[in-house]
Amino acid sequence: xxxxxxxxxxxxxxxxxxxxxxxxxxxxxxxxxxxxxxxxxxxxxxxxxxxxxxxxxxxxxxxxxxxxxxxxxxxxxxxxxxxxxxxxxxxxxxxxxxxxxxxxxxxxxxxxxxxxxxxxxxxxxxxxxxxxxxxxxxxxxxxxxxxxxxxxxxxxxxxxxxxxxxxxxxxxxxx
Length: 175
What we know:
It is built from four helices and eleven strands; from the N terminus they run αβββββαββββββαα. By secondary structure, it is α+β, with helices and mostly antiparallel strands. It has a single domain (about 15-175), classed as CATH 2.40.50.180. The strands form two sheets. The chain has a six-stranded mixed sheet with strand order 8-1-2-11-10-9.
């Protein structure tokens, strides 16, 4: 039995399969997030604004009957709000809320591509040199000669806070 445990540990240590990341543009920076959390990508359309919400909550959308809050990542990261263009998209992803799942939308300037990035291509977040807070970053992916800022969505978006915003937005629509 101990041989099996040792073999399992060795197999886990060798399991260095690349992860796929959806990459997107925010201004002149390329960011990415684990594609396993992404549900879909939709064209940016009309959003309902919700009064008394933080500036980074761009609005809410009706996605097949569900109220989904849309977070403007530029505003969330302390930048000016995103200017909408024909390339603007909303990335719908699954956020963990305790043991439940909540859908959130991320407003991005444009979606780029899906990249496979192996663990050996990911560096620890730097202490400087990026306009995104260090605690929001899972790592920096090195792809060829370029870098991709890999987000840690649960930290960057404070999922509990976002879920509460979603609940408040739904309640304001009912009132």
